[in-house]
Specification:
Layout (H helix, E strand, L loop, with lengths): L2 H20 L18 H20 L1 H10 L8 H8 L4 H21 L6 E3 L2 E3 L1 H23 L9 H10 L1 H7 L9 E7 L2 E5 L6 E6 H8 L11 E3 L1 H9 L19
Parallel strand pairs: 3-5
Antiparallel strand pairs: 1-2, 3-4, 5-6
Helix pairs in contact: 1-5, 1-6, 2-3, 2-4, 2-5, 2-6, 6-7, 7-9
C-alpha cells in the first residue's frame, strides 16, 4: 500500500469514527453548543464538509479554488472560515449526506491528482500526502469537540501519529503565525503512543517535549490548554512552543482556557 493510500484509509476511519457519533443523534442534539465559541455540533460537521470541499477543489480544480479564495479569504480574512462553515449548514440529514459525499469526493480527487502535484491551500501549498494528513488532523480535532460535547471519551489510536508528526513539522509555522522569529535550535519530541514511543527531531537536541501522544495532539490542535496536559518541556524554545503550538493553517488560533482537569 502506498503512503497516500494508507493515509486515505486512516482519513476514512477517522471520519467513520465521528460519523458513528453524530449519525444516530436526534435532530435536537445538533444544536448543542460545543467548546468552539458559538459553534454547535452542526457547525462542526458543516466546517468539515466545507473544508473537505475546498480541499477537493485544491486537488481537482485550482481555478475554482482560487476563485473562492479571492471572494472569501482575501476579502474578509477574519471571518471567511465562519462564513464558509455557515454556507454549508443544513438540516441534519442533508448535512450528513453533504459531508459523506464530499469526503468521498475528496478522497477520489487526492488519489487522482498527479503524484508530484503541489496543492494550493491557505498561505501555503501541500503534497497530496500532506493534504490527507491535514484532513486527518482536522477531522480528529473537530471530532474531539463533538466528543467533548457528548461526553464521549475517545481511546487513542495509531492515527494520532499523523497528527503528532504534523504538530512537530509545524513548529516554525507556530512561531511565525504568532509574529515571532522561528527558532534557530531544534526540538526533540518523544511521545508515548498507543503501542510505543514516537520520536521526532534530533536525539541530541537539548530542547525537548515529552509526554503522552494524545496530550500532544490535543495541544497542537488547540483542544486543550497546556496546563491541563501531562506534557513536559525542557529548554526555552520548547517551553515557548507549548504556549503557541498550532498544527493548522491560517491565523493564530485562540486556544482553550485551562480547566484544571487533566484529559
Amino acid at each position: 500500500m502506498s503512503i497516500l493510500a494508507g493515509l486515505l484509509v486512516d482519513l476514512a476511519d477517522e471520519s467513520a469514527d465521528l460519523d458513528a457519533r453524530v449519525g444516530p443523534l436526534p435532530e435536537a442534539h445538533w444544536t448543542r453548543l460545543t467548546p468552539a465559541d458559538g459553534w454547535t455540533i452542526a457547525h462542526q460537521i458543516a466546517h468539515l464538509a466545507w473544508t473537505d470541499h475546498m480541499a477537493k477543489l485544491a486537488a481537482a480544480d485550482r481555478d475554482a479554488f482560487w476563485a473562492v479564495l479571492n471572494n472569501t479569504a482575501f476579502q474578509d480574512p477574519e471571518h471567511f472560515v465562519d462564513r464558509g462553515t455557515e454556507s454549508f449548514l443544513a438540516p441534519p440529514a442533508e448535512l450528513l449526506d453533504r459531508w459523506r459525499t464530499g469526503r468521498a469526493a475528496l478522497a477520489d480527487a487526492l488519489a487522482a491528482a498527479p503524484p508530484t502535484a503541489k496543492l494550493p491551500w491557505y498561505g501555503t501549498s501541500m503534497s497530496r500526502a500532506s493534504m490527507a494528513t491535514a484532513r486527518i488532523m482536522e477531522t480528529w480535532a473537530h471530532g474531539q469537540d463533538v466528543a467533548d460535547t457528548l461526553g464521549h471519551r475517545r481511546p487513542p489510536t495509531e492515527r494520532l501519529r499523523h497528527i503528532a508528526y504534523l504538530g512537530f513539522r509545524t513548529l516554525e509555522h507556530s512561531f511565525r503565525v504568532h509574529g515571532r522569529e522561528a527558532p534557530a535550535v531544534p526540538v526533540r519530541v518523544e511521545l508515548v503512543g498507543p503501542s510505543g514511543v514516537w520520536e521526532f527531531g534530533p536525539p541530541e537536541a537539548t530542547d525537548r517535549v515529552v509526554g503522552p501522544a494524545l496530550d500532544f495532539c490535543l495541544l497542537v490542535t488547540q483542544r486543550r490548554h497546556r496546563a491541563d496536559l501531562a506534557l513536559v518541556a525542557t529548554g526555552p524554545v520548547a517551553d515557548e512552543w507549548l504556549d503557541i503550538a498550532q498544527a493548522f493553517a491560517g491565523p493564530p488560533g485562540t486556544g482553550r482556557e485551562p480547566t484544571g482537569a487533566r484529559s
